[in-house]
From TrEMBL:
Transmembrane segments: none annotated. InterPro entries: Acyl_CoA_acyltransferase, GNAT_dom, N-acetyltransferase. SUPFAM superfamilies: Acyl-CoA N-acyltransferases (Nat). Coiled coil: none annotated. Residues 18-182 form the N-acetyltransferase domain. This is N-acetyltransferase YoaA. The lineage of its organism: Bacteria, Bacillati, Bacillota, Bacilli, Bacillales. PROSITE patterns: GNAT. It comes from Paenibacillus segetis.
Length: 184
């Protein structure tokens, strides 16, 4: 288990088809392509990005998230061509409670090909083995049926509906709470 203060170097994870790595300034164009899509962002909790500068700022926020030991966000890169197709990572890391929230998104061209499952499996394994997590949470719009199916396939359990839990896109939204425990 990694002590919170010992996590100094950003972890790189590899799967059969993917490399999960830290995003840098050169990834801003790819992140912009992903998060400027209404299809991708409608369940992301924000409006689509309008300009690439927003992607650059987001990458900086991801860097600070790691630097401040509050979590981290990997870029999901295809090994075959080094193309960034999405992100996955932990935030809301409650270190003293051994829990964190996981989030993810993929470029819409890569939906339905198993990449999200592959990336989440690697991230979850890292969370349990290296971060010492006992509980991984995911908050999902009830309308996001594809994400809910993915989480259920990974073993997450639906714990309930959180009414008007967040204020996204200028309105209060309900979110389903899913959780995966190290030992159910």
């Amino acid at each position: 288990m990694v002590e919170n203060s010992e996590l100094r170097q950003f972890p790189v994870l590899e799967t059969e088809r993917l490399r999960l790595r830290q995003l840098g300034p050169l990834d801003a164009a790819a992140l912009f392509r992903i998060l400027s899509s209404e299809e991708v962002t409608r369940y992301y909790g924000r409006f689509p990005l309008i300009e690439q500068l927003e992607a650059e700022e987001m990458i900086e926020r991801f860097r600070l998230l790691f630097e401040e030991q509050r979590g981290f966000r990997w870029g999901i890169e295809l090994k075959e061509n080094a193309q960034v197709i999405g992100t996955v990572g932990f935030h809301a890391w409650a270190y003293s409670h051994n829990r964190a929230e996981i989030g993810y998104e993929l470029n819409e061209s890569y939906h339905g090909k198993g990449y999200a499952h592959e990336a989440l499996t690697a991230a979850i394994s890292y969370g349990y083995q290296d971060m010492g997590l006992n509980r991984i949470e995911a908050l999902v719009y009830p309308q996001n049926e594809a994400s809910e199916r993915l989480l259920l396939r990974l073993g997450f359990q639906l714990e309930g509906l959180l009414k008007q839990y967040a204020f996204f896109r200028d309105t209060y939204v309900d979110l389903n709470m899913f959780a995966l425990l190290r030992e159910p």
